[in-house]
Amino acid sequence: MLEIILMIIIIISAILALVQKDLLKAAILTGFSGGAMAVLFQVLLAPDVALTQAIVCAVIIPVFLALAVKKTQRSDA
């Protein structure tokens, strides 16, 4: 039952990240989806994959996306 709930959370957060107009919110939702997937891998008894998923998809990718959004924002100067 927990696996199904986690899969629903992953799908919903991925869809919300796709339709989000604000790119920073999309980066946060991408990290949320990656974190939920890491928990799913841990529940499925794959701790090595869960650790990699948590590091890469829940931390590194959202940080890089947020930095890219911050660097490319237009200024009205």
TrEMBL record:
Gene3D superfamilies: NADH-ubiquinone/plastoquinone oxidoreductase chain 6, subunit NuoJ (1.20.120.1200). GO terms for cellular component: plasma membrane. InterPro entries: MrpA_C/MbhD (IPR025383), Nuo/plastoQ_OxRdtase_6_NuoJ (IPR042106). Residues 8-74 form the MrpA C-terminal/MbhD domain. The chain crosses the membrane at residues 50-69. It is a multi-pass membrane protein. It holds the Pfam family MbhD. Keywords: Cell membrane, Membrane, Transmembrane, Transmembrane helix. The keyword Transmembrane helix applies. It is found in: Cell membrane. NCBIfam families: PRK06280.1 (NF004923). This is Energy-converting hydrogenase B subunit D. It comes from Methanobrevibacter millerae.
